[in-house]
Amino acid sequence: MIDIVEHNRMAWKNEVEKENQWTIPVSTEEIINARKGNWNVLLTPTVFVPKEWFGNIQSKKILCLASGGGQQGPLLAAVGANVTVFDNCIEQLNIDKMVANRDNLNIETIQGDMKDLSCFADKSFDLIFHPVSNCFIDNPQNVWNECNRVLKNDGILLAGFCNPIIFIFDLSKWDKEKKLEVKYKIPYSDIDQLPKEDLIDRIQSKETLEFGHSLESQIGGQLNSGFIINGFYEDISNGDLLNPYIKTFIATRAVKKM
Number of structural domains, the chain? Predict the structure, then answer.
């Protein structure tokens, strides 16, 4: 049995040490520009979130969910939002703390599992910013349910996630022979579908363990939780081998309606 929360917590500590692109904090210059109204943030790898998706966030309570790393949270705080960054990895949260201290930002950081937001009361936030991250948990429905609970009525959920097509291929075949061969089914799980020796290698190397969730669970899951989706776009990933054929990331804007 693998404690996926604990394993991925340590894997992201490893990513911080390797300076993964999602662990590199924004600069002071970017914070200065954000205070002047010039800012952009990412839910997916390359496309900036439309500003109209946010509305006026001055003094609004924003939860940056599974969004540590000193990137989105500090920029939203610089614009004037009251920001809480919630993440599984303390090392990621420490980067947000560093930026907050460096640039005099008011950011609260809390460590925890994105599936469990019990530390927050019902209707605590005006907006949740949830970039690509639920590929590191086994059940996104729990996330959507908790997001709906902690959002105020008419609150906004901005979410990024993977197109599950990226999980169906045998990447070892690509590495060895440069052939894209379909091997795995959706929903996908590294734990259940990787060959045992590959899984052991990922665990010992402290690499993240991932899950490929169906679009039904990603989009339908939001609808089942009580959200109305009113924004959608797709994105590519830097260097992704499927870029010539299909966009492999999705962002949605959803509103809580009671």
Answer: 1
Domain of 83?
Answer: 4-163+211-256
- Residue 222 and residue 144: Cα distance in Å, rounded? 6
Residue 93 lies in a domain: yes
d(CA 61, CA 59): 7
Amino acid symbol at 199 = L
Residue 197 lies in a domain: no
Q: Is residue 175 included in any domain, yes or no? A: no
CATH code for the domain of 138: 3.40.50.150
Per-residue pLDDT of the chain (258 residues; tens, 9 = 90+): 899 999 999 999 999 999 999 999 999 999 999 999 999 999 999 999 999 999 999 999 999 999 999 999 999 999 999 999 999 999 999 999 999 999 999 999 999 999 999 999 999 999 999 999 999 999 999 999 999 999 999 999 999 999 999 999 998 888 888 888 999 999 999 999 999 999 999 999 999 999 999 999 999 999 999 999 999 999 999 888 899 999 999 999 999 987
DSSP 21: G
